[in-house]
Amino acid sequence: MSRVPAGLWQNLIAVQVYGANTGVGKTVFSTLLGAHFVKRAGRTRWSLHYIKPVSTGPAGEADDRYVRKYTGLSVSTLFKFRDPVSPHVAARSADHIPSDDHLNQRLYAKLKNDARAYSMARGHMGVAIIETAGGVLSPGPSGTPQADIFRPMRLPVVLVGDHRLGGIASTISAAESLIIRGYDIDAVICFDDGGKYENSQYLQGHFDKMGILAFELPWIPDLVGLSEIEEKEAMRGYYDTWSRQGRMFKVARRIIDRHIERLASMNNLARRTKKSIWHPFTQHKSIEKADDILVFDSAYGDYFQTKHTGRSMNSVDHVGEVPLLYPAFDGSASWWTQGLGHGNPQLSLAAAYAAGRYGHVMFAGATHEPAITLAERLLVGLENPRLTKCFYSDDGSTAAEVGIKMALRAACKRYDWDGSKEDIGILGLKGSYHGDTIGAMDASEPCVYNKKVDWYRGRGHWFDFPTVKMRKGKWLIESPAGMEEEFGPAQYFGSLDEVFDFEKRGRSPRYEKYIESLLDKIVKEQRRKFGALVMEPIILGAGGMIFVDPLFQRSLVQVVRNYPFASPASPTSTALEEDPHTWTGVPVLFDEVFTGLYRLGRFSSASFLQVHPDISIHAKLLTGGLLPLSVTLASESIFQAFWGDEKADALLHGHSYTAHPIGCHVANKSLDAMRELGGGYAWRGYQRNWAVADANGSSEWEEKLTMRAPAQDSIWSMWSKKYVTELSHHPRVDHVFAIGSVLVVSLTDKSGSGYTSNAAIGLRDALLNDVSNTRVSVHSRVLGNVIYLMASMTSKPGHLVAVEDALLQKLNAKVVDGD
Fold it and tell me: What gap in Å lies between CA 656 and CA 74, rounded to an integer?
């Protein structure tokens, strides 16, 4: 995934010419377009640059020489290969095969130089014609299809259709391949074959229905039997005549108009948004002007293409160094959803397939293959013998709501409580948060998200707990201030693996005593009733990226499952009595919406605790970040609580798009891709980086990696171990931690931590807006004094190193508010 800005400048129109196939006339069209702008009359002076990113075959037959011969244009070819074959084959005999990143960087450098040159002269415009090789999906030197290689810049496209027999199908297929990848097609061109196949007439009608203009251009002269001089004269006459005709004026006008429209749209989006949109998690009084709203043009891989804040798209960039759009690393993984990168073509294709096969079909009392396949693989993949049923909903909050309904019904039925008349509470952890629907909010203690919600009641009790962090290069478990007597003094560990070594740490009588004493107080003395334990394994996300001591969470589950909350009103069924996986105490619900599905490096974050919940909820990464979909997985003993003769006994929950097949099919493809990453070599470098070396300098983990052991035997992160350790020593940092794709940095704030702190705001803004001194711009989110960053599952090490460097540079630059 290339980190290059989108190809959009005020004084340069960059257009990419794709062909529906080889031999369709891409170079002829590029030459016609160039010749037209060279001869175009008017007040605007046009400069032209023809760029061929990849060329194969003899130099004498190269497209750039042909274009220069008939137009005199400035031409460039970025990579040339001798053999007249597909670039991925031709590149094999070369000394160096350019990566996709390198190819994009070279192309962008050429365009940037053009933009700089053209911005210097008033009344001057440039056109860059970038002609690809072969068809839309023809492979580049690396083997990646060209439409995927050049997607980061998302240049507007002119598609040259196929005029030959079968060309209608290939042209439409090529267009759909571009559209499914998020390209804008400015125009479709088809050469008139004299009415033999009438492709152009059909294509004009077809694309008109899609809102894409299609143009017919005059047939290319027949050069068979002509001498070299005659051929040259014929083609010169062709270009001289037709580049001046009305058809080419219409094509050029379309390209110019689309450029102007794109600039205007980007310039007005923030204003239109400020007028019409009510943003989530936003105090709109803080949005004083439209420029405070971040505008995205597109996204690809780990990066947004973002409009420069406060910069008009109609202004002239006199320096030419800074593009109108720039790439910003998606540091929050788009609210924790991104797993396989923005614009992932495999997921887009999966969504298109399911949309074409099903659209949406209702799910009550029915089924379809994507839903049952996804349910089965989740139930197996979580390796939790308790879970037997999958309930679909739309997002994490709703999944939590469903899980809470399940747990409360199970508890009320077993203990003969009437939840409609009695106050049945939830047990959880302080700082936890499970979503924005009313029921899910009630399962959290009062906080900035819910305490001013008028229906919020806070139905539960939330335990304090020790936290895990790295400070000054040492891992430690620290008690909340003033609670050392309950939890003990700070404990230090040589590695994060040791924190999770439950065999070595053993049970914690101190933790168990604290939990039991509180339960005695609230259950036996205050006679409160509780129907579930609800918690996020390992990290509390929205509550402030808090890393809970995993031994405390294990202790809490064990105590709750053995605690006598009430005596069953009647014996459970014989089947459930004999089932070792029947819930006891109260049902245990794990909220893995944030921490599950490889976010922390494992398929399930429950596996870190070596505890099996009775209910497990998942969302966000489930579809790789493409579509909303969530699941609530439950045990048989939970399911049986809704078994009865009356419909009112059933779980009466659902929504119109329950188990929508598009989301389910995409989720299956997403899980395929993530499992391949987890089982292959993609993460091995990260895992080795975090391996704990023994006295001989090697590690048991490294040996396991060599033997292809599963990547669940050790704790690791995509963020550099050395870097995380360095951050923990920084004078502006209180503590850090990294696990899986998550990096959390808690900044020091003399006025206090938490959501009222503004300590991280200045750092957040500097990372996003100051792109002149760092290698990368970073879009991030903050939670009070905490700034966090997340990689996707497909992030490249070099890109993460750039993000790490940017964060450290901004910390060193004293950009935090109050400095």
Answer: 57
Kindly report, residue by residue over 767-795, the tens digit of the pLDDT. Answer: 998 665 557 899 999 999 999 999 999 99
Q: Answer yes or no: are the C-beta atoms of 549 and 465 closer than 8 Å.
A: yes
What 3-state DSSP class applies to 48?
A: strand
Cite the beta strand spans of 63-172 per DSSP E: 74-81, 124-135, 157-160
Q: What CA–CA distance (Å, rounded) separates 514 from 465? A: 10
Tokens of 85: 């074959």
Closest to 185 (Cα-Cα) out of 164, 163, 206, 166: 206
Alpha carbon distance 289, 325 (integer Å): 20
For residues 118 and 124, the answer to whether their CB atoms sit within 8 Å is yes
Sign of CA dihedral 85, 86, 88, 89: negative
Q: Which two tokens stand for residue 134?
A: 């072969």
Cβ burial, residue 473 (10 Å; 0-12/13-18/19+):
exposed
Kindly report the number of other CB atoms within 10 A of residue 52's CB atom: 23
- Parse the chain into domains and list their residue ranges: 12-264, 351-462+528-675, 718-812
pLDDT digits (tens, 9 = 90+) for 701-726: 455 444 343 344 689 999 999 999 99
Range ranked top by mean pLDDT from 211-225, 626-640, 646-660, 745-759: 626-640
Among 743, 718, 714, 706, which Cα is nearest to 794's? 718
* Beta-bridge partners for 117: none
Please give the average per-residue pLDDT across 511-518, as a whole number. Answer: 97
Is residue 289's pLDDT more than 80? yes
What number is the average pLDDT over the span 563-569?
A: 89
Q: Judging by beta carbons within 10 Å of its beta carbon (0-12, 13-18, 19+), is residue 279 exposed, middle or buried?
A: exposed
Whether residue 160 has pLDDT greater than 60: yes
Q: Beginning with the edge strand found earlier in the chain, give each strand of the sheet holding 296-300 in spatial order.
A: 296-300, 303-307, 325-330, 777-779
CA 628 to chain centre: 13
Residue for token pair 């006994």: 649
Query: ∠ at Cα 717 (713, 720), nearest 5°?
Result: 130
Do 12-264 and 718-812 come out as alike in CATH topology? no
- Nearest CA among 156, 150, 113 for reference residue 132: 150
CATH number attached to the domain at 351-462+528-675: 3.40.640.10
Other CB atoms within 10 A of residue 704 CB: 16
CA dist 330 and 789 (Å) reads 8
- Tokens 């029947």 belong to 582
pTM here is: 0.93
Read out DSSP for 137-186? T-B-TTSSBHHHHSGGG---EEEE---STTHHHHHHHHHHHHHTTT--EE
Task: Assign 3-class secondary structure to 522-562.
Answer: HHHHCCCEEEEEEECCCEECCCCCEEECHHHHHHHHHHHHH
d(CA 815, CA 304): 23
Fold (CATH) for 12-264: Rossmann fold (3.40.50)
Element (H, E) at 299: strand 296-300
What CATH number should be reported for the domain whose range is 718-812?
Answer: 3.90.1150.10
Three-state DSSP at 787 gives strand
Which residue type sits at 351? A
Distance of CA 406 to the CA centre of its chain: 31
Three-state secondary-structure class, residue 14: strand
Q: Please check whether residue 38 is in contact with residue 244, taking contact to mean a CB–CB distance below 8 angstroms.
A: no
Confidence at 818, pLDDT banded by 50, 70, 90: very low
- In whole angstroms, give the CA distance from residue 634 to residue 613: 9
Q: Report the candidate in 100, 104, 67, 63 with the shortest Cα–Cα distance to residue 80.
A: 63
- CA 148 vs CA 107, 116, 162, 796: distances in Å: 15, 27, 21, 17
100-119 mean pLDDT: 92
